[in-house]
From TrEMBL:
An example Gene Ontology molecular-function term: anti-sigma factor antagonist activity
Database matches in Pfam families: STAS
Protein name as it appears in the record: Anti-sigma factor antagonist
Origin species: Desulfosarcina alkanivorans
Domain STAS: residue ranges: 4-116
Family to which the UniProt record says this protein belongs: Belongs to the anti-sigma-factor antagonist family.
Length: 122
């Protein structure tokens, strides 16, 4: 199976990258290229929506970890959304991201983003 990647700006400073298919050694350059384009905008939050992702290899994890490192350099954050059980298991095993950065759905993510923005605006 192939990989398709889309990106959209959800709100000011928040971008959602959606991946569908297999994220592996052959397909990770697609996601990596899209991440690089989005990071040029210096978002404060980068969301990886993995609802349609069937498989992730170490190269896929590397792309996410690299994005996290770049975002951390300017106090941005990476969050994961809609992880399928097999994808969640990979992150559980490697403990790549804290659990508070993994969301079960868009409503939970929106609540989190609302709380973060209220902290900034008062």
């Amino acid at each position: 199976m192939d990989l398709s990647v889309t990106s959209k700006q959800k709100m000011d400073g928040v971008y959602i990258l959606s991946a569908a298919g297999r994220l592996d050694t052959n397909t990770y350059p697609r996601l990596e290229a899209r991440v690089e384009v989005v990071l040029e905008e210096k978002p404060h939050t980068l969301v990886f929506d993995m609802e349609m992702l069937d498989y992730i290899s170490s190269m896929g994890v590397r792309v996410i970890a690299k994005a996290q490192k770049t975002m951390k350099a300017y106090n941005g954050r990476v969050v994961l959304l809609n992880l399928q059980p097999q994808i969640q298991k990979v992150f559980d095993i490697i403990k790549a991201l804290p659990s508070q950065q993994v969301f079960s759905g868009m409503d939970e993510l929106d609540d989190y983003l609302d709380r973060m923005q209220r902290q900034v605006t008062g």
